[in-house]
Amino acid sequence: MWYLALKHLFSRKAQTFLTLIGIIIGSGGYVVFTAIQLGFQSFMVERLINRTGSIFISSRDEYITKNSVEKTFANPSLYHWLKEPSGRKEKSTIMHIKKWEEILRRFPEVVSYSGQLSKEAIIDSGTFSTSVNLNGIDPKRYGKVTNFEEYITKGSLQILSQENNSVLIGEPLMKYLGIKENGIVNLTFSDGKTVPVRIVGTYNTGERGTDNRSVIASISTVQKLTNSIGELSSIILKVEDINQAAAVANKLSLFTPDKVESWDQKNENFLSMTSTQDMVRNITTISFILIVAFGIYNILNMVVNQKKREIAILRSYGYSQKDIIFLFLIQGVILGVIGAFMGLLIGAGLSAKIETIPTAGRGMSHMVVSWDVAIYAKGFLLVVGSSLLASFFPAKNAGKLSPVEIIRGSM
């Protein structure tokens, strides 16, 4: 049966070759396209988690409403609002910090954690000024939770704890202010207080919003400058398994009224974008598979029409309808397996070549591709599966042919 299948395929070498080329292009294109997209998504997710942590604990936003205010009145019906109260409650710090430290030490899923205190300020160098976020971090713990140290171009996190009123700023912000390392700039806060701070280092994450607006200092420095001793605005956590971050966050949220979000919950907009990319990839995959299926269907359909006499001879020799169907299914499988295997090899080779292409992005020196085995396994199964499906209809038609009808049709 295998011999007859190969003989049928080789009887029309040009068409078989062109069909095989189509299968190779389809499977190879699937591998390259999927590897690039999944590689880039993995890079962005890893970059996002490494920079912001796995879980983010912050104060829950609470807003003043008519009902919340009326609860403080003995008899709310005696009052009439000319203008109903609104707005956010002033407090924006984490409650029960010491309790959180006790909880996090008991959680085996939590690898490390670090507190943060963020305040808004205006930075100026005498000539130029702009609004910034002053972010206080724990220099000893922050590097264990994030990979921020990789983006520091001058100085280090440890200097922040060694020198009072010292800060790190983004290189673009430093260029805008027109100052150099160890230069002095002023920070002005919402209460009108202005204090001088020294620039002891710079960083460059490649994200314009962060590099232009974020000033890094130690928590103790920010607390002292803003009269907020003992306060934290957030705690960032690193967990062992990022895929379990949401589950861990849900457990932690049961302990206090503070807001606890995992990296995927906090970045729903980004993940919705990756979902759109996945949809585009699936549509492209379907297109590749249709190319493969149409090529196989076309050649086998032509073989059935041109090999009617041979099919009649086989039926007269005792081959059953199932045997004829199996014969043509074998031809589809042969084309699918050979084309898929060669396509996956070519796709892997192109992926390796693409991975060496340099990029200008910060933190991404070369193109990133995914080498997940599932890509190749899925590609192989899709191609072989579509080959079987495309072969079924010509095989079924061939099985229906009877020797008598074929001989009558040729007379």
Give a concise summary.
The protein is of the alpha+beta class. It has helices spanning 2-10, 13-52, 66-70, 97-106, 139-145, 158-162, 171-177, 208-213, 219-225, 245-252, 263-266, 268-306, 308-316, 321-354, 373-400, 403-410; strands at residues 55-58, 110-124, 129-137, 152-154, 166-170, 184-188, 194-203, 214-218, 234-239, 259-262.
Give the amount of beta strand, in percent.
Answer: 15-25%
Instruction: Write down the Rg.
Output: 33 Å
Tally the structural domains: 3
Distance between the terminal alpha carbons, to the nearest Å? 29 Å
Helicity level: 40-55%
Number of DSSP helices? Answer: 16
Using DSSP, what is the number of strands? 10
| Spans where pLDDT lies below 50 across 5 or more residues | none
Main sheet overview: 6 strands, mixed, barrel
Category by helix and strand content: alpha+beta
Form type: elongated
Widest sheet, order of strands: 2-3-8-5-7-6
Structural overview:
By secondary structure, the chain is an alpha+beta fold. The chain has 3 domains: 2-49 and 270-410, no CATH class; 60-93, no CATH class; 110-239, no CATH class. Helix content is 55%, strand content 16%. Strand 6 and strand 7 form a beta hairpin. Helix 1 crosses helix 14 (321-354), helix 12 runs parallel beside helix 15 (373-400) and helix 13 (308-316) crosses helix 16. The longest helix is centred in the first third of the chain and has 40 residues, at 13-52. The model has no long low-confidence stretch (mean pLDDT 79).
